[in-house]
Specification:
- The structure is a single chain.
- By secondary structure, this protein is α+β, with helices and mostly antiparallel strands.
- The chain has one domain.
- Helix content is 37%, strand content 10%.
- The protein is built from 3 helices and 2 strands, in the order E-E-H-H-H.
- It has a two-stranded antiparallel ribbon with strand order 1-2.
Length: 81
């Protein structure tokens, strides 16, 4: 079953959306996007909590917005694409 993740699902003001057939494929794409467009470092992305946040935002079926967790980037010096 295809899975989808978006930056909006994670509370970011970014239009990025990724669809894939496996968890590894999705996590790899999110890692690449986070490094390139959101200014994350490799060290930040290796933290277990980052991967858990992404896993929580992946949708296999529609999920009500109330179950999504808002992420605040206001303390980071980044510019969404």
């Amino acid at each position: 079953m295809a899975m989808t993740i978006t930056c909006a699902d994670m509370g970011y003001s970014c239009g990025y959306e990724l669809t894939g057939d496996s968890l590894d494929q999705i996590l790899s794409g999110v890692k690449h996007h986070s490094l390139e467009f959101h200014g994350y470092t490799e060290e930040e992305l290796e933290k277990t909590d980052a991967v858990e946040i992404w896993k929580g935002a992946i949708r296999q079926v529609a999920r009500p917005d109330a179950f999504r967790t808002h992420r605040d980037e206001s303390d980071r010096d980044i510019t969404p694409h």
